[in-house]
Amino acid sequence: MSVLSRLLKTGSIAGSMSVYLPSMVLQKGLGLGRVILLTWLVSKTEMGFWGLAVMAFTVAAPLVTLGANHALSRYVSVYEARGQLLEFYRRVRTWVIWLAVVLTGLALALSPWLVRALLVFKQAVRGGPVTLNPYQWYMALVTIGTVGAMGLYLCMLSFAYGLRVYRLTSVVEIVYSVVFTALAIVWASATPGALSILLAHLVSLGATLALGGVLLDIGVRRLARNGTGEREAAPLEDDVEPVADADDVGMAIPIHATEPNPPAEPVAAGLKRFVRFGMMTMLGAMIWQATGFVSYFMVYVWFDGRTAGPLAVFLRLSQPVAFIAGAAWAILFTHVARRWEDGDRDGAMFVLETAYKALSLAVMTFSVLLYVTAPWWRQIVDPAYRYGYLYLPGLLTFSVAVSNMTLLTILAKLHERPGIIAIAGLAACSLNVLLAAMWMSPPYSWHVNGAARAAGVGMYFGGGLVLLVYLLAARVRLSDSTYFILATPVLLMLPALWVGVAWPLILAVCLLTGWVFDRHEREVLGRSMHRLGAAMGRLVPWR
Predict the structure, then answer these.
(1) Alpha-carbon gap, residue 33 to 27, rounded angstroms
(2) Rounded to the nearest 5°, which phi and psi values hold at 355?
(3) How many domains does the chain have?
(4) What helix, strand, coil percent values describe the chain, rounded to 5?
């Protein structure tokens, strides 16, 4: 089997995770090492500048393609199933590239007004004169360029996600992480500052886009030429048997969920739905991305970059577990979406709830471990940053709550109701802003810790309320144990000692009794874990 054929190989959820999760662990390990080393090379003020730039291109990157990356992860499997993959790829690729070039160019042309608007806002909040120096101007230009490159990079990855070629995405993402880490450390050592790190972002994205674009183009053409029959010879998810009755697994499927798939339509006609779905999902995703940075942005504006620097560091150090879980969620969604498109709606919902409970328990367990051991592992960062570990209760609560809310985003995408994602993010973001403004001000005056706690409480209660309402409105009935797992992130707001004692007891009840996982779910998880372990035990994980 050729190298490219191995990169295009797909399999069950367990097989996909055996490939993608180790690559995510490697990437996030590099990311953690990069952040830790940069604390010893870059001042808190420069770290604050970098954190602001990361916020900008994380939130705005999907905007330059009008959310095409979100639509691709949903619709690639649709056009693959219809045998229209190559035509869909050609049309979308041309449209996405031109859109990114035009909108990035427009942002560069408007950059003087964009930067001045930020400075005026900061001046209005803090008072006193705020001036723009050449260094900040250069950073703004590089940040906008990075936004455009990141938008194309996300679209490339989303197309590969939709094809479920996780070996290919693993190679591309590891190349980006390695190149960026090397450039950032070398350039920051030579010229300490946020600008060096941002230039490393831009150059590494360009190099990875060139490599990944060529591999994806060749792969799509080969798949279209050979057809997908051989690639899908193995069952999509061979760990799960068909579910005869939704009531047996503790959920009710909406009435419209069992309707047959619509007949195939020309790709050009279907692009309207693709664009509409992408833009609606982008709106929700941008709001969700903003919720991850709103507390940081408020601290940056309320105080200064030096104060925001440690928050930026521990914001990143608190998220590796959730990011790795995000890789598992991405794999789960593409497999569930393919079952959904193939008409096996009951089986798709069974896989979703079973995997959701298992992944949520894993994320919470590792987050508790991170929280309890924080007084020791915080020693790895520069002493000037170490007090930032006090922000972990709010940051970890936010991170785990976001991971748990993936249940809402998957259901909304399957039902093609992306607007509900925006509503949930808006509710969480609004509550976050209100609480941060209150807790950072007298009589509370909790300073940065107030903003960090507002992030966790805002996501937990704001997003959670919308999720509950949606589940009731869509008549998706979940088991009591699933609702219990949805509630667990609130434990992270308690003192570390209490959490360290309570969580092992809760975890034991979840794993050793039949309350969380019934017999069928345990059998499925057992087979999946066996296959996952066997696959990950191979010397070459993408063999």
Answers:
(1) 10
(2) -65, -35
(3) 1
(4) 80, 0, 20
Distances (CA, A) of 389 to 50, 63, 386, 407, 446: 19, 33, 6, 29, 15
Containing 63, the helix (H) or strand (E) segment is: none
The one-letter amino acid at 10? T
144: in domain: yes
Rounded CA-CA distance 356/479 in Å is: 12
Question: Domain limits at 520?
Answer: 3-233+267-536
Q: Are 226 and 166 in contact (CB under 8 A)?
A: no
* Residue 259 maps to a domain: no
Q: Any idea which residue has 């007298």 for tokens? A: 442
Number of other residues whose CB lies within 10 A of the CB of residue 478: 19
Whether 246 maps to a domain, the answer reads no
The pLDDT profile of the chain, 543 residues, written as one tens digit per residue, is 566 666 666 655 556 666 677 777 788 888 888 989 998 998 888 888 888 888 888 888 989 998 888 888 777 877 777 778 888 888 888 889 999 999 999 988 888 787 777 776 666 666 555 666 777 778 888 999 999 999 999 999 988 887 877 788 888 889 999 999 999 999 999 888 888 999 999 999 999 999 988 888 888 887 777 665 444 433 334 444 333 232 222 322 232 333 344 455 566 666 677 777 778 778 777 887 788 889 998 998 888 788 888 998 898 888 777 777 777 777 777 778 777 767 777 778 888 888 888 888 988 999 999 999 999 988 888 888 989 889 999 999 998 998 888 888 888 878 778 778 888 889 999 999 999 999 998 888 889 999 999 999 999 999 889 988 888 888 877 788 888 988 999 999 999 999 999 999 999 998 888 888 888 888 877 877 776 666 556 544 444
Q: Is 98 exposed, middle or buried (0-12, 13-18, 19+ CB in 10 A)?
A: exposed
To which residue do tokens 């056009």 refer?
Answer: 79
Distance in angstroms (rounded) separating the CA atoms of residues 529 and 349: 19
H helices of 342-479, where?
Answer: 345-372, 374-377, 392-404, 406-414, 419-439, 447-457, 464-473
pTM: 0.75
- Do residues 304 and 48 touch, judged by C-beta distance below 8 A? yes
Query: Helices marked H in 130-235 — which ranges?
Result: 134-163, 166-190, 194-226
Domain presence at residue 543? no
